[in-house]
Specification:
It is a single chain. The chain is α/β, with parallel strands linked by helices. Helices cover 47% and strands 17% of the residues. It is built from 22 helices and 24 strands. A 5-stranded mixed sheet has the order 2-1-5-4-3. α6 crosses α7, α7 packs antiparallel against α8 and α8 crosses α9. The radius of gyration is 53 Å and the shape is elongated. The two termini are 53 Å apart.
């Protein structure tokens, strides 16, 4: 404590005794000196003005006398008389020059040397305007008077006088006032010295007491010094402060004696509360992890098989059905993820992918996902992506699609009639704007601030009417903020709502749109006004002039006709049919019937997709037939990466998941081996070499994590086989257990073919195919990909092509495309 006091005293600096005395002395000197200067200045000013005024009056009087006497000589042009008069005047003390001037300023007669400075004073100016500087620095005084004869001015007289005595008078004045100031200062210092003792002594005693207390921290000794007035109040306040400090120290000391017991008791309460919270949080996490795993496992078969079905040799209409199943499965997965995302966001564990986002495909997929729901409600649902938007930007396509799906779903939920419009357009040079507008019930102005809060809706009664948990908008806002963007809402009751997302963009593929040479007219006959407007904008960007023609009366000569299929049903087959596009809702075969009947060249389903419109415009720009291909080939999609020599092992106890994995791997030219538990996986990897192992986490006999650890333990000093966790555990301890088990990555169920392609591309290209390593005494029988006990899988029946349709290219002729990779940001 003493060291601390010493350090504080050192920081405060040395205390200078008597500083108040010096300050009082300086104050006295400054006060008396200032007063002396003011008095001296006033005396000098008054004395100078009085002295110069007296001399000026005498000189002016001489000039007046001279002007009176000079009237006759000047009027009679008597120079001799004028000279005699001037000689008489020049004998006046101080006058060194006198002159008589004619009216035109010429010298009629003068006497002496009339030289003067420009700064010298002249009687033409009033005495009150003369400054002190002019009075001190002037050398001469000049006075003049007009010569009057019979009321007329016939000339002027000028008289000059020296001002030598002024400086002497001023110095005398300064000496007298300075002496008086010195005497006053001396008297003031004597009085101040006597009075300051009664003021400074109590303050010095108080300063000494403060230094003593600062050194030894003894707050029990008050200051005792004779004082009165404000100093007495200061001393009393200091003593009161010492008493309060002593009382506070006593309370602190008493509190410290009991503080340890209080801390121990509160620590025990905190530990119990912490354990209860951790237990509740663990229970919640376990519940979410279990539910997520149990739901994702059957969804894996639904989604992957639906995606494989969409890639098989189906007609265009049936392929669209399969695509809807795929998108619906993804939407269901997104709903499940909504339940889990809030926990991830609040825990700070949500990560965003940095991949490629196809903006037009994203908007069209979302609208197609909710198209049937909108049609059932009689609501027009339209997506429009501005043709000037980039093809691809960097971002998280899943999360961005999740946000847009939430907004569109929310708009449809609260819209009973009218329309819902999704627009993607530029927002400046480096940002995009995604706008979702509906004509629904709207949101009151006082509820707008709460729509983004968790478990909140604008009107709590809408929960019963419209349903919903209130999580979608909360998750959407937090996801957009994680993307460095912003989401806003504007609304009016009974008029609808508009949600606007603003995001920064990094372009991966610039915008491109077909241009049709020569222009022309495009006739549009669609039911929905918003759909017709969006299509007109896209057609205008291609160089055509769209017109709305509900009855197709202007169709003759049009370069492109886009009409509802019902309007074409009774039109004759003619030349216009080769440039006609029949439009019908998804699942309505009337558009295909119009194509088959020769009344249209191509059928498109509503909501219209930008890719389909662009394909039509591109064919029109290239002068090609507008008819689209009827079938797609089975097997790997064009551009799919294939790994024909890769050896992959799949370990899963679910027969459905084994079949899903096998069929998915076949899309990439891989014929895998399968086992149904972790022990079999460990045994088969001991006798055969594999390029990759897909390991389910939850299996009987030995789970996937234990199997991976066993494989890693056996690989010590040998080549390492890549192992990917194929699991539905995305929450809880199982979400990160694959790292602890030594696995190389995670492929969560349900997976997509794109995710599988990315996983294969990361591990298989670096592996050189090797012949299987056999052991003579344990040579297993190689069996094909199977579900149970070596039973072969049912091979797909060969597709029978209809006459006249193009044949599919063989699977080996597919051109490999770059792998689809994503990196976490």
């Amino acid at each position: 404590m003493t060291d601390m006091a010493g350090s504080r005293q050192a920081r405060a600096g040395p205390v200078r005794r008597g500083s108040i005395s010096r300050k009082l002395t300086l104050l006295t000197i400054a006060s008396v000196g200032a007063a002396t200067l003011v008095v001296t200045g006033m005396a000098v000013w008054q004395e100078s003005r009085r002295f110069v005024g007296a001399q000026h009056a005498a000189l002016q009087q001489t000039a007046d006398i001279l002007s009176t006497a000079a009237a006759e000589p000047l009027a009679g042009a008597d120079v001799a008389a004028a000279q005699a008069l001037l000689r008489a005047v020049s004998r006046t003390p101080g006058v060194f020059y006198a002159a008589i001037e004619t009216p035109d300023g010429r010298i009629f007669s003068d006497m002496g040397l009339g030289a003067r400075l420009d700064t010298d004073l002249h009687t033409a100016r009033p005495v009150a305007t003369w400054s002190l500087h002019e009075l001190i620095t002037t050398h001469t005084l000049t006075a003049g008077a007009p010569v009057i004869r019979r009321g007329d001015a016939i000339g002027r007289v000028v008289v000059m006088r020296r001002a030598e005595n002024l400086a002497v008078r001023l110095w005398n004045t300064l000496a007298m006032t300075g002496l008086a100031g010195a005497v006053a200062l001396t008297i003031g210092l004597l009085v101040a010295r006597r009075l300051q003792r009664s003021i400074t002594r109590p303050i010095q005693d108080l300063t000494a007491a403060m230094q003593r207390i600062q050194a030894d921290h003894d707050y029990a000794s008050p200051v005792s010094t004779p004082s009165d007035g404000e100093v007495a109040i200061l001393v009393e306040g200091f003593n009161a402060m010492l008493g309060e400090i002593a009382e506070r120290d006593a309370r602190i000391e008493a509190h410290v004696r009991t503080l340890e017991h209080q801390v121990a008791a509160r620590t025990q309460d905190f530990r119990a509360a912490k354990e209860a919270a951790e237990s509740a949080n663990a229970a919640k996490s376990d519940f979410l992890a279990t539910m997520s795993h149990e739901i994702r496992t059957p969804m894996n078969g639904v989604m992957v098989m639906a995606e494989l079905l969409a890639r098989s040799g189906l007609a265009a209409k049936h392929r669209r059905y399969a695509d809807v199943i795929v998108r619906s499965g993804r939407n269901l997965l997104a709903i499940i993820n909504d339940i889990l995302d809030l926990s991830k966001i609040e825990a700070g564990k949500l990560t965003l992918e940095d991949g490629a986002v196809d903006l037009s495909a994203l908007a069209d997929d979302v609208v197609a996902l909710f198209a049937e729901r909108a049609r059932e409600k009689g609501v027009e649902l339209v997506a429009y992506t501005d043709p000037t938007m980039p093809r691809r930007i960097a971002g998280d396509p899943v999360r961005l699609g999740q946000v847009v799906s939430n907004l569109v779903s929310n708009a449809l939920k609260f819209t009973e009639q009218g329309s819902v419009t999704l627009r993607v357009e530029p927002d400046g040079s480096d940002r995009l704007r995604i706008l979702v507008r509906d004509t629904g019930v709207g949101i009151p102005a006082d509820k707008l601030a709460s729509v983004f809060q968790a478990f909140s809706q604008a009107d709590q009664t809408t929960t019963r009417r419209f349903g919903g948990t209130g999580l979608g908008l909360t998750i959407s806002r937090r996801l957009i903020e994680a993307m460095d963007g912003a989401i806003t809402v504007s609304s009016a009751v009974a008029k609808g709502s508009t949600f606007v997302i603003s995001l920064p963009i990094r372009v991966l593929e610039p915008a491109s749109w077909p241009r049709i040479a020569g222009g022309g007219v495009a006739v549009l006959a669609l039911r929905g006004r918003n759909a017709e407007t969006a299509l007109a904008r896209m057609i205008s960007a291609a160089g055509l002039s769209p017109i709305a023609d509900p009855d197709l009366s202007e169709a003759a000569g049009a370069r492109l006709i886009v009409a509802e299929a019902a309007l074409l049903e009774h039109r004759p087959v003619g030349q216009a049919s080769t440039c006609t596009i029949a439009v019908a809702p998804l699942g309505d075969g009337l558009a295909d019937t119009m194509v088959a009947a020769g009344r249209a060249a191509r059928a498109l389903s509503t909501p219209l997709r930008r890719d389909d419109v662009e394909s039509v415009l591109a064919r029109l720009a290239a002068g090609q037939d507008l008819a689209a291909d009827g079938l797609t080939g089975a097997g790997p999609a064009p551009g799919t990466v294939v790994f024909p020599r890769a050896r992959v092992l799949v370990a899963d106890d679910s027969p459905v998941n084994l079949e899903v994995a096998c069929e998915a791997l076949r899309q990439f030219g891989v014929t895998p081996r399968t086992v149904s538990d972790g022990r079999q996986a460990v045994d088969i990897t001991a006798v055969e070499d594999f390029d990759l192992v897909l390991m389910d986490a939850s299996m009987p006999v030995l789970d996937g994590f234990a199997a991976a650890r066993a494989i890693r333990a056996r690989e010590a000093g040998r080549s390492r086989v890549p192992i990917l966790a194929l699991t539905a555990h995305v929450l809880g301890a199982g979400a990160d257990a694959w790292r602890e088990a030594g696995m190389d990555g995670l492929l969560s169920k349900p997976f997509t073919l794109e995710a599988l392609a990315a996983a294969l591309s990361r591990h298989l290209p670096a592996v050189r195919p090797q012949a299987p390593r056999r052991r003579p005494h344990r040579r297993p029988h190689r069996r094909p990909c199977s579900i149970l006990g070596g039973l072969p899988l049912r091979r797909p029946r060969p597709l029978r092509l209809r006459p006249g349709l193009p044949r599919r290219r063989p699977r080996h002729a597919m051109r490999p495309a770059p792998a689809i990779c994503s990196t976490r940001r």
